[in-house]
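Quick log. Single chain, no ligands specified.
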Amino acid sequence: MTSVANESTSSGTIAVSAIAPSHDNRGSWIPNGAMIKTKIMELRKRRGLMAALIVVNIGVPTIFLLVRLIAHAVAPKSYGPAGGYAIYTDLVAGVMYVFGFIVAATLGCTAGSSDLTDGMFRHSVITGRSRLALYFARIPAGLAIVVPLVAVGFTIVCAVCVFAAPTQLNYQGVNIPPGLTATGFNHWAADHPKEVICGLPYNGPEGVPCFINGHGKVVVGGKSFPPGAPTFKTMSHTQIETLAVKVAKQNYADYARTFLYPSNALMIRTGLWIELEAIIGLIVGLGLASLMGQRTVPVVLMIVLEVILTPIFSRTPIAHLINVQRGLVGLATDHLEPGGLPHAFGGGNGPGQVAQLVPESRTVAVLVIVAWLVGWTALGAWRMVKRDA
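-> predicted structure:
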């Protein structure tokens, strides 16, 4: 800063002009790096919240996989390998997707209401900073915390599921060579008819009893047979092979989606998908908490949205309300789920099963997600601007 001396021509005295402060962009709506760093530090000081984020995103998957690694090392015949495709899909779709959204939403709700609950909102406003900048600084601050945590937890899951994967594919309880073509799968079934007929599901009029209990002959799966039904002893070798091939043909589509371990392409798509879910939880929670001016109720509402409303309204079309259902962000992210994963909330018949979801195109799903992100950001920022200091 500099001062300018003005010479008075009438008295010969010199007056020093007032020193003008330098321009520091206090009125700009764009947050600067210092504001973002300050918000990150404020959130990181909440040790309970940070512990919950670490436990859910990193701790739970790591402990689960560690227990499986130890159990397999101690008793390999009793406990299967710690990794593999099945473990990967269960952890990603069953744990990281749902609970990652909840803890990210909790972080967003905390970031959106901490100034009010701590009594610091007035102090933040009187600094002269733009209220929009104060709000927008919370978005990159939250992302800087939640995105790396999700990435670390997901990386651990991918590493264990790939390097500790089984060496032989176990499909429906039957050990089958991986990566067979349809023809190869049929040939393998013909060479192992009893394993296929007794181990794989089959919907057909014919069948063979695989064991006998006190109530009569019963095939695996609970299908009963009348007295005198054909058995492996009464059927010819050709008949048994033919039935095994029929069973194999019904199961090949599901078998083809099952692998020893997830592919690189699937892991990349899945990582982006669960990161997107966490980002949605963070930004929606941030906007909702800013709008309501508190944290507890928004957190409860976000949990209800994810655990109750999304599973119900995503699966059952309701007459005259189907377009409202299509506006649900959980349904939109479900439709962006990578192929090769089971339905995030269960209910599917196999990996990638989305038949029970309310129908919606991917374009509409993307637009719904964008609308939720922009809409809740706008609502939260608007309430921030209008709130009394």
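Residues 177-256 form one domain.
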